[in-house]
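Lab meeting prep.
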Amino acid sequence: MLADTHASASEPVLAEVRNRVGHLTLNRPSGLNALTLDMVRSLRRQLDLWADDPEVVAVVLNGEGPKGFCAGGDIRSLYDSFKAGDSLHEAFFVEEYALDLVIHRYRKPTLVLMDGFTLGGGMGLAQGCDLRVVTERSRLGMPEVGIGYFPDVGGSYFLSRIPGELGTYLGVSGNQIQAADALYCGLANWHVHSDALTALQQGLDTLRFGDHPLKDLQSLLASLGTQAVDGAPLAQLRPVIDHFFALPDLQAIVEQLRTVSIGDSHAWALATADVLQSRSPLAMAVTLEMLRRARHCSLEDCFAMELHLDRQWFQHGDIIEGVRALIIDKDKQPRWNPPTLQGLQRQRVDQFFEGL
């Protein structure tokens, strides 16, 4: 066997093979399992080993601790790198996107447990998996616009493929969703109650794999969970979201959210407008443009577009100010550039996409 590597409990990624299943556990619970470059490299190394190991028929991704699978990338370390004139932030995105692409294209079935917070970089790991499991504790989202950034890690691809304008809404607002909405949007495909997670692990340890490991895993999930949960709020809001978020630009979206009433959704619309007005105008506008372009792009082209934006963003975007205000100084008063949508020139948005 190539890769039954039992890592010590202090390792940031734990790797173990049990019953022909490779288990990868993100092991930074105090940091909500946020990804460092070392973790990205460790995950990639292990997946490459298991891809060629005949004794491994499937891979399961999980997060240590009760709060979440993965809350994203370790943004503080990227901020520090940029401020110090280092290149960690550049290497991080190149390698993180390559890892996410490996998961999307992996030849063996992959299952991810998105119990608790699964945000940003956590979604990048999860959305390439074949079987994406949520629980009643799951909180999924691409919250990047809140720190002056844009949804990356393949977000341009998977958000732009959600029905209607739901993905546009999630990307531009940065709002989080729970299990019923995740299933409705196709960002998850199985729901298992957290009480049954122990039974799921036991099932994985005793499953008899035949010629079709993916079907075997699906049968196990079917015995413990379901593929839909009633009462998805976004299902109710879908016609309203489809109307507002198909408008030509963000100014029109915010204006209409404030002034146009559709059914009994006006309170939601006003609250959404307030959320949008707290976000970085530049980040939201670039996100909107990126998601609209991504509808016509392959997965590889989506990653290439995100990397193209990344290479300019620390210098010319709002992320450094967003991280300062929300993570470093914690004054929660980011000084966005420009501060309002009215002050944002279309040319400023278009410049980020030049040379694609």
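Slide two material, second protein:
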Amino acid sequence: MVLLTGVLATALLAGGVAAYPIPYVVLEPGPTVDTLGKDVIKVTGADTSASAGQLRLTTIGVRTEITLPEALGAWADDDRALVPRTVVYPPGLSDQQVEDKNAESFSTSQRNAEAVARREVGRPFQVTFGAEDIGGPSAGLMFTLGLIDKLTPADLTGGRIIAGTGTVDEAGKVGRISGIPQKLLGAKAAGAQIFLVPADNCAEAVRNAVPGLPMAKVATVDDGLAALRTFTAGGTPPPCPGSP
């Protein structure tokens, strides 16, 4: 933080550059999407059920081409993060290549969600996923839970609003993601009553805990299902260690 302050201060002293983009981007809370909503997960070839609550995937917004005054404003705002552009757009890759990579990761997360759900419910079906504007692999957990909820008679939400994030591999393991602080804020703004946190993100999540938003530690899809059942029955799922 001291180094960043020095860089920005030096830039301020170099007059005439305030209106030009600088090599940083701003991360901020992005929209959340209810995976049980219309057209987000479409299932054919199997009976489906409706749920009274919501299972919301979370995203981060990335603002590029920011000017120095905008960077300073983001640096002073606890709800946003100012990071080097190379964190989001690695050197050697064009912006389009990064977008293509995120799109492929998103498709992989959907395929993994389908594989895990198929194993969980034990019957054939066809599925298509919506939310095409989202990239990256971090929607995997919530897509998997949403698909399982649609394919099982029980309402896994219990009428609650549940948010979360995390990658999912074909074995059902939940992996770490980026942007936890912004995703927690986005979930709270969407009315979430609990947030499912990948186990490997727990320490970061605890440091950025949002008042009024409990967090449950999730290492596998089975952990996520257990957390839903416990929470909707009135219990407290295993939290991230150190959670308030």
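Talking points for slide two:
Confidence is low (pLDDT under 50) at residues 1-5, 11-15.
The domain at 29-59+102-232 is CATH 3.30.230.10 (Ribosomal Protein S5; domain 2).
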